[in-house]
Write a structure and sequence with these properties.
By secondary structure, this protein is α/β, with parallel strands linked by helices. The protein has helices at residues 7-14, 87-92, 94-106, 123-134, 147-155, 169-177, 192-199, 222-228, 243-258, 275-285, and strands at 2-5, 30-33, 46-49, 78-80, 114-117, 139-144, 161-163, 182-187, 201-209, 231-234, 266-271, 290-294. Strands 4-3-2-1-12-11 form a six-stranded mixed sheet. Helix 3 (94-106) packs across helix 4 (123-134).
Length: 295
């Protein structure tokens, strides 16, 4: 089995987000092979383990997660994958792309709108870029915290990358959009970048916040809200998506994933005995792409 390491795992571990039970097994998402199944998922089926339970509770927060060698799950928690998708890609896919799609939905995305998805090297940020392009955004902008990451992003084919070591978010967005600003911001980072991203919104723009790895507070100008009529909306996965709502999003995502039109970036894979090092690497190194654990 492969399992992903996400920022929320550190939030739970550190006590910033309280788990329903303690101790709890961490890990929101994973992939593997069915060893004892049913007619729908017979032995040997390659599967994604959804980050959700049927009632919308997220693994590794309110129920035990996927950081374990064997899991007993309800068949409805599984998504079959073909041989064209690697186990690594499958494990890195669910949380980032579901989160990004949920943010775009909450921001009332429609083809032709412009999107700023923060953090090209982050899971949700990168998923937001890919999905916005596939869904018909007029322009997609992203950010990188260093020139090294900005260069890496451009080498991988990502366009309109704002190097935050050289200019601010609002400066970069104004340059790229000729001062118009963007219609939508997908913010999975938080902290001071949220205030900067709010300032980068255009008239009637919407920022959707779904993460706070860079901090839980920010400052913004009231005049941006009053004069431009912008909005800030919050998004979360845990407890907000029942099985019908989950399936609706998966039906939008899985055809794109199966066709290879969207794909998570993977930075590094750690063996299970090095799970502590995997968490430390994610938090301290802030890598370009997802971190995985192999069991």
């Amino acid at each position: 089995i492969y399992a992903a390491v996400n920022a929320v795992d550190n939030s739970v571990r550190s006590g910033m987000m309280r788990a329903k039970v303690a101790p709890i097994i961490l890990g929101n998402e994973g992939s593997g092979i069915v060893v004892q199944g049913n007619p729908e998922f017979p032995e040997g089926t390659r599967v994604i383990i959804s980050c959700f339970r049927a009632d919308g509770q997220v693994r590794g927060i309110y129920i035990n997660g996927v950081w374990q060698e064997y899991l007993a799950v309800d068949p409805s928690d599984l998504i079959a994958i073909g041989d064209n998708i690697s186990f690594e890609e499958a494990a890195a896919f669910p949380v980032s792309f579901f989160s990004a799609k949920a943010c775009l939905n909450k921001a009332d995305f429609a083809p032709g709108k412009s999107v700023l998805s923060l953090a090209v090297g982050g899971g949700v940020g990168n998923a937001g870029i890919q999905l916005s392009k596939e869904m018909g955004a007029s322009i997609v902008i992203t950010t990188a915290e260093s020139s090294e990451k900005a260069s890496r992003a451009r080498q991988l084919g990502f366009e309109n990358v704002i190097d935050l070591s050289l200019e601010t978010i609002s400066e970069g967005v104004a340059r790229i959009t000729d001062g118009k600003g963007v219609d939508i911001v997908v913010d999975s980072i938080g902290g001071t970048l949220t205030g900067e991203a709010i300032h980068a919104l255009g008239r009637s723009g919407i920022l959707v916040s779904i993460g706070y790895s860079a901090g839980t507070t920010f400052s913004a100008k009231i005049t941006d809200f009053v004069w431009k009529g912008i909005q800030m909306r919050g998004a979360s996965l845990n407890g907000w998506f029942d099985r019908n709502a989950q399936n609706e999003v998966w039906r939008e995502l899985m055809p794109l994933f199966n066709a290879g039109k969207i794909k998570p970036l993977i930075a590094k894979v750690f063996d299970a005995e090095n799970v502590a090092a995997a968490q430390q690497y994610l938090i301290e190194k802030r890598p370009f792409g997802k971190i995985l654990i192999k069991f």
